[in-house]
């Protein structure tokens, strides 16, 4: 059986989920936050060593209506405050990492909650849970290139590039799951780390994405022969 070492999720469809129910968009984000907890628990049950989840994109922060952005900040503060105290996180020794532009764009109270979750789990090593916050794949790549230039590195190879990415400590993504029924990439999502990924697209809107469907994607991957160009 071919088991994935690293699974990443692009959780699309929160606002459309809310719209279908006649609810304000922020309620879709709240529904999406509830779904995260169930899927993270399932990832732990499946013993996935690396699990990466998109919390907010850079465009979410810069292009959405102000009231939605303020709500996303409040949601982040609440969520990371809770996850820092989550019994399952500590029992399973899950290390939390947060990558992206969040330190630049998030307000102080949300950043404090995020840093608390990182600090309280930094010595754990059973599994790795990474959140992408105010994330842009294009920003990640251009930032890596700029760091290489600043360090006056002349010869660039795959190792050098990887070492300068936000995701330098993560292995390649084996399985990328995108919910919401729109099968496309987003702003160069983890473009280096998903070069050889297997994709799973689903019509299911993120708040309705269940542990059962997550396990289905996991099983499909495990039964698929990975040739990786060979």
Topology at a glance:
Blueprint: E1 6-10, H1 14-20, H2 25-45, E2 50-54, H3 58-63, H4 66-83, H5 87-91, E3 94-99, H6 102-105, H7 108-121, E4 127-132, H8 137-150, H9 158-163, E5 175-178, E6 198-201, H10 211-222
Parallel strand pairs: 1-2, 1-5, 2-4, 3-4, 5-6
Helix pairs in contact: 1-2, 2-4, 4-7
Helix content: 40-55%
Structural class: alpha/beta
- The residue ranges in which pLDDT falls below 50 over 5 or more consecutive positions are none
Strand content: 5-15%
**What name does the CATH topology carry?**
Undecaprenyl pyrophosphate synthetase
**Shape label:** globular
**Total beta strands:** 6
Total of domains? 1
Distance between the termini: 19 Å
Largest sheet: 6 strands, parallel
Assigned CATH class: Alpha Beta
Going by CATH, the homologous superfamily would be: Decaprenyl diphosphate synthase-like
Based on the structure, what is the oligomeric state of the protein chains? single chain
- Rg, Å, rounded: 17 Å
List the helices and strands in order. Answer: EHHEHHHEHHEHHEEH
Tally of separate helices: 10
Summarize model confidence as the mean pLDDT: 94
Strand numbers in spatial order across the main sheet: 3-4-2-1-5-6
User: Which architecture does the CATH hierarchy give at level 2?
Assistant: 3-Layer(aba) Sandwich
How would you describe this structure to a colleague?
This protein has helices at 14-20, 25-45, 58-63, 66-83, 87-91, 102-105, 108-121, 137-150, 158-163, 211-222, and strands spanning 6-10, 50-54, 94-99, 127-132, 175-178, 198-201. With 230 residues, it is an alpha/beta fold. The chain has a single domain, classed as 3-Layer(aba) Sandwich (Undecaprenyl pyrophosphate synthetase), CATH 3.40.1180. Strands 3-4-2-1-5-6 form a six-stranded parallel β-sheet. The mean pLDDT is 94.
């Amino acid at each position: 059986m071919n088991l994935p070492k690293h699974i990443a999720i692009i959780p699309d469809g929160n606002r459309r989920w809310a719209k279908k129910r006649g609810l304000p968009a922020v309620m879709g984000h709240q529904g999406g936050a509830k779904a995260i907890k169930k899927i993270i628990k399932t990832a732990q049950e499946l013993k996935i060593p690396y699990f990466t989840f998109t919390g907010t994109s850079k465009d979410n922060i810069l292009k959405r209506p102000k009231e939605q952005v303020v709500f996303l900040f409040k949601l982040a503060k609440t969520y990371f405050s809770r996850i820092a105290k989550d019994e399952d996180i500590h029992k399973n020794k899950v290390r939390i990492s947060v990558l992206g532009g969040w330190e630049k764009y998030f307000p102080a109270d949300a950043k404090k909650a995020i840093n608390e979750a990182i600090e309280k789990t930094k010595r754990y090593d059973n599994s790795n849970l990474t959140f992408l916050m105010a994330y842009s794949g294009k920003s990640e790549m251009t930032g890596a290139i700029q760091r290489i230039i600043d360090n006056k590195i002349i010869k660039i190879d795959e190792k050098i590039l990887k070492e300068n990415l936000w995701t330098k400590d993560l292995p390649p993504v084996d399985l990328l799951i995108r919910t919401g029924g729109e099968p496309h990439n987003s702003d160069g999502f983890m473009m280096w780390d998903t070069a050889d990924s297997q994709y799973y697209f689903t019509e299911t809107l993120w708040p309705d994405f269940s542990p059962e469907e997550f396990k289905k994607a996991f099983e499909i991957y495990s039964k698929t022969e990975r040739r990786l160009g060979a």
